[in-house]
Amino acid sequence: DGACILLDVGANSDCTPEQLLEFATLGSVYASSLLGLDRPRVGLLSIGSEPSKGNALTVAAHRLLACSPVRFIG
Fold first, then answer.
1. Cα separations (Å) of 27 from 24, 39, 50, 72?
2. Closest Cα to residue 71, out of 43, 34, 44, 41?
3. 8 within a domain of the structure (yes/no)
4. N or C end of the chain: which has fewer CB within 10 A?
C-alpha cells in the first residue's frame, strides 16, 4: 500500500551501529503492530547498496542489520 516509516533522520548526531539496529527493530515492530505490515522491509540509506559503501558507521550498521532478525534489504 506504499506505507513508509522514516527513522533517525538526524535527530541523533552521534549514533552507534547498535543504536541504528535498535531503531530498525523498533520501526519494524511499529510497522507490524500499528500498520499491520507482515515482515516490513528495513533499509539503510547510504551512498550505495553494497555492504562496503559509506563511512565506518554505515558499514558497521549494515553488518549488524544483515545478521539481525529484521527483514533488511540493504
1. 5, 11, 22, 12
2. 41
3. no
4. N
